[in-house]
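Data availability (excerpt). All sequences and predicted token strings are deposited with the supplementary files. A representative entry, Succinate dehydrogenase hydrophobic membrane anchor subunit, is shown inline so that the format can be inspected without opening the archive.
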Amino acid sequence: MVLNQASLKRDGVQDYVSLRATAIVLALYSVFILGFFLITPEVTFEVWQALFANTLVKVFTLLALVSIAVHTRIGLWQVLTDYIKSAALRAVLQFFLYALAFAYVAVGLFVLWGA
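Structure token line:
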């Protein structure tokens, strides 16, 4: 059985669509948060806590966190492959930066759903 090797890897179209989709999610989330600050006369801890007590806001925030991670992964891959010519150095940088992005999502999950 012959497998198409291209199907086992990311391709440019998938990266393009992923970047655009995550950018839309992040733009919508930014507008949502900005709108919240503009229409809320005084943002206190209680108001902020009440906003994030809503399950839909938690899910939207989680979607934004995952979008940041995907957007970061693709963007870092593009930048590192363009500017870091040493494959070993690029692999080490990618590992640490991807691990950092994963840690941000993990902390976001803990903050959103752990408390």
